[in-house]
Design goal:
With about 325 residues, the chain is mainly α. It has 16 helices and no strands.
Length: about 325
């Protein structure tokens, strides 16, 4: 009977468009994942040296495809939930634009391709760690933690925090990997306040589908306190790359400003006088926060090199004009 249903599903569903297949990949999330991974690659080599561009391209492709694969499996598992939530009911699976079987084939294809690229063109440790993070998100978080505990995102965030480590190992293997764990820690601590802001904004929808997000099980006031706690902790953790000599003053100043901004949002949330829309603004700020923080790490890593290059070019132009 199940075999018959699978055949009917395959026959009756037309071939999905590339747009719909890509709609399963959470491309904006993948882009942020890729940014943190690429920064990990560049920080793995001392300035002014640059990582091997062949490795950077191969690792970026492999990590991105694997992340997209995990996103597809998330869509498959959450199809019934997505059908009932206004934020997600327009996704390709709930709309019937892609069947579950087509999505499954697509997810497996992306995963095999991504992991294959990492194994063939990067290294085994990066492939293994990427596979573990894929399983962590697609299986452990999506299939179990999300429906089992209000601390789902706090625990499951480990999978989403892995990309900087993956980028680091792609370039340097295990050499200096302890520094990449500082980047892992930043993303790991960032994840709960980032997602809980969205969860409060969509709390009624999570109640409707019976997903035990923290604001559903413990209330908004308690979640507000947790957002403030994790944001304070994040402020401290973002100072660690400077404290341990991994980055310099440009990053330190950026981290203080960006984390200070995040803390302002968290304090306003804690005071409990903001409307629901403020949680959405906090969520959007948190996305930009992580992006700018990692860009600051990269700029800080190479700024002396770029200044020296600028001086050399300026001296060359001055001598050239003088001779002319």
């Amino acid at each position: 009977m199940n075999s018959f249903n699978v055949k009917i599903d395959t026959i009756n569903t037309p071939m999905p468009s590339l747009k719909d297949l890509l709609g399963l990949c959470k491309l904006k999330v993948v882009a942020l994942i890729l940014l943190t991974a690429v920064v990990g690659m560049f920080l793995a080599v001392p300035a002014p040296y640059l990582p091997d561009p062949y490795i950077v391209i191969s690792a970026s492709l492999g990590i991105s495809l694997s992340a997209a694969s995990a996103a597809v499996f998330n869509h498959i598992v959450d199809e019934q939930i997505d059908m009932q939530m206004s934020r997600t009911h327009q996704r390709p699976l709930p709309q019937g634009k892609v069947s579950r079987n087509q999505a499954l084939v697509w997810g497996v294809f992306l995963g095999i391709l991504g992991l294959g690229i990492l194994q063939l063109f990067v290294n085994t440790i990066t492939m293994v760690l990427t596979f573990i993070s894929l399983i962590g998100y697609a299986v452990i978080y999506t299939m179990y933690l999300k429906r089992a505990t209000p601390q789902n995102i706090a625990i499951g965030g480990a999978a989403g925090a892995a990309p900087p480590v993956l980028g680091w190992t792609a370039v340097s293997g295990t050499q200096g990997i302890e520094y990449s764990l500082l980047l892992f820690l930043i993303v790991f601590i960032w994840t709960p306040p980032h997602f809980w802001a969205l969860a409060i904004f969509r709390v009624n929808e999570y109640k409707k589908v019976d997903v035990p997000m923290l604001p559903v099980t413990h209330g908004i006031e308690y979640t507000n306190k947790q957002i403030l706690f994790y944001t304070i902790l994040l402020f401290i953790v973002t100072l660690m790359p400077y404290i341990y000599g991994m980055s310099g003053l440009i990053y330190l100043a950026s981290a203080i400003l960006l984390s200070g901004g995040f803390l302002v949002y968290a304090i306003k949330i804690f005071n409990g006088r903001e409307n629901k829309l403020f949680y959405w603004k906090t969520f959007k700020y948190s996305v930009n926060y992580l992006m700018l923080l990692f860009i600051a790490l990269l700029v800080d890593h190479y700024w002396l090199f770029f200044i020296e290059k600028y001086k050399n070019i300026n001296n060359f132009m001055t001598n050239f004009l003088t001779i002319g």
